[in-house]
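dude i think i finally got it to work??
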Amino acid sequence: MFNLSRIRCNNKGLTVIEFIIAFALLNFVLMLVYSSYFVGFRSFQSGEEKSNVQRNIRIAVTFITKEIRNATELVLVDAPPSTSVGDGYHYIYLAEEKPGLYSILHRTPDGEIISRIQPVLSAITPMFELSQLENGANIIALTLQAANSNYYLETTINLRNISGITDAGDQVIKYRKP
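look at this
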């Protein structure tokens, strides 16, 4: 039978060996808990970063699609004008914001430059390709790729108000809105 008075009279405490074993077990349990926490945390951060990059690229593609789908005139050029020329054209192009990171910029006819996405893109040559399908439909193919990632988005946009184009590929869209 269990004798409680015997344990109360035992004033020896823990031995060094018992203390070391208890400490080692505690460290092992804490190591398992913290390592699983950090793996989860890093995985969440990585997923969040990829999600932000994908969101920014989708925002850029949506903006470009809305801007040029109903354009009345559209050409691809190799570079935007260096100054505001007041020619009535809009420009969409890639500009290096940081080394190796590019943003999509939109220049309005009055010369105002608006950044449309954060610098997460890598340069692709050519980024825009203009072509005419066999049925006579005019399209522009667009490719955006995330920097430091294998994520990219390709899409084609049907140009509703443009006729008689020639195939071309370049970095800058020059267009006029209705």
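The chain is about 35% helix and 30% strand.
im so relieved honestly
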